Amino acid sequence: MTVEQAKGMEFRDVVLMNLITDSPGEAQLWRLFLKNVPGNTEPCPSFDSKKHNILATELKILYTAITRARSQLWIWDSDEKKRYPLFKFWQSMDLAVTSDDARSGKFTAKGDSTTVEEWIRQGQILLRTRTMKTH
Q: What's a single GO MF annotation on this record (predicted)?
């Protein structure tokens, strides 16, 4: 299910896969978030409304995706360079935790945990209602 298809819906758990990696915005654009990380000494671009216009669009999509989750939000992103600024910002605000294996690309918002059985049951519902596709 795409973010656009999920608009207006709500789920206990949401998994976002490569939302930042698949963004058409360059990795450099995402570095803008480092300006808001306390004590950051890494270089950050200056805000430019023309250059960062694509980032505004991507953030609207991210907002929609994040607000679909009632309890758990899991973000997995494979592009370490592109995801780094946003993940660093969320960590600095104590909004999320990363997995023990930083190379896994997994990032989890703080919330209640969900059982394996609940994931299986929800997956079966999505398959039955043809909301989720299999390969």
A: ATP binding
